[in-house]
C-alpha cells in the first residue's frame, strides 16, 4: 500500500471513530484484549470456534471427539508445552529453510 493511500485510510478511520465517540485508546485496549484472548486459545476448528482448555468442553469439540476425531487435530500450533513439541519433532531443523512458505515448499512432488 502506498503512503498516500495509507494516510487517506488513517484519516477516514479517525473520522469514523470520532463520529461514534471512539478513541484511539479504546481501540488499543480492544486489540490488546483480543491478542491476549488469542494467545490463550488451545483448540480451534475450521469455523473459528475456539476453546482455551479451561472449563467444560464446548459442544462443537464434544461432537467432533465423539465422532472419532482426536483432540490433537484441533490443537493450535504454539499452544503446546515446549517439551511436548520438541519430543514430536524430527532431528531436522527446518527453521532455516530458505524455501519455507514459498510455492517450492508446497508444490506437489511426483
Could you walk me through the main structural features you see in this protein, from its secondary elements to its overall organization?
With 110 residues, the chain is mainly α. It has 2 domains: 1-39, no CATH class; 41-89, H-NS DNA Binding Protein, CATH 4.10.430. The chain is built from 5 helices and 2 strands. It has helices at 3-19, 24-39, 59-66, 82-88, 103-106; strands at 43-44, 50-51. Strands 1-2 form a two-stranded antiparallel ribbon. It is flat, with a radius of gyration of 21 Å.
Question: Helices and strands in order, then pairings?
Answer:
Layout: H1 3-19, H2 24-39, E1 43-44, E2 50-51, H3 59-66, H4 82-88, H5 103-106
Antiparallel strand pairs: 1-2
What shape does the CA trace take? flat
Uncertain regions: pLDDT < 50 for 5+ in a row? Answer: 82-87
Mean pLDDT: 79
Helix content: 40-55%
Strand order of the largest sheet: 1-2
Q: Report how far the terminal alpha carbons are from each other.
A: 38 Å
Q: Structural class per helix/strand content?
A: mainly alpha
Tell me the total number of β-strands. 2
Tell me the strand percentage band.
under 5%
CATH class of the largest domain: Few Secondary Structures
The count of domains is 2
How many distinct helices?
A: 5
> What's the architecture of the largest domain, going by CATH?
Irregular
Radius of gyration: 21 Å
CATH topology of the largest domain: H-NS DNA Binding Protein
- Main β-sheet, in a few words? 2 strands, antiparallel
In N-to-C order, the SSE pattern is: HHEEHHH
Amino acid at each position: 500500500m502506498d503512503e498516500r493511500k495509507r494516510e487517506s485510510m488513517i484519516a477516514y478511520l479517525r473520522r469514523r471513530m470520532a463520529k461514534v465517540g471512539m478513541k484511539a485508546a479504546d481501540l488499543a485496549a480492544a486489540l490488546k484484549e483480543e491478542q491476549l484472548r488469542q494467545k490463550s486459545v488451545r483448540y480451534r476448528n475450521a469455523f473459528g470456534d475456539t476453546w482455551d482448555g479451561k472449563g467444560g468442553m464446548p459442544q462443537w469439540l464434544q461432537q467432533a471427539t465423539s465422532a472419532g476425531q482426536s483432540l490433537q487435530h484441533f490443537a493450535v500450533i504454539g499452544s503446546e508445552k515446549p517439551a511436548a513439541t520438541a519430543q514430536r519433532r524430527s532431528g531436522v531443523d527446518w527453521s532455516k529453510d530458505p524455501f519455507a512458505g514459498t510455492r517450492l515448499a508446497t508444490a506437489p512432488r511426483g
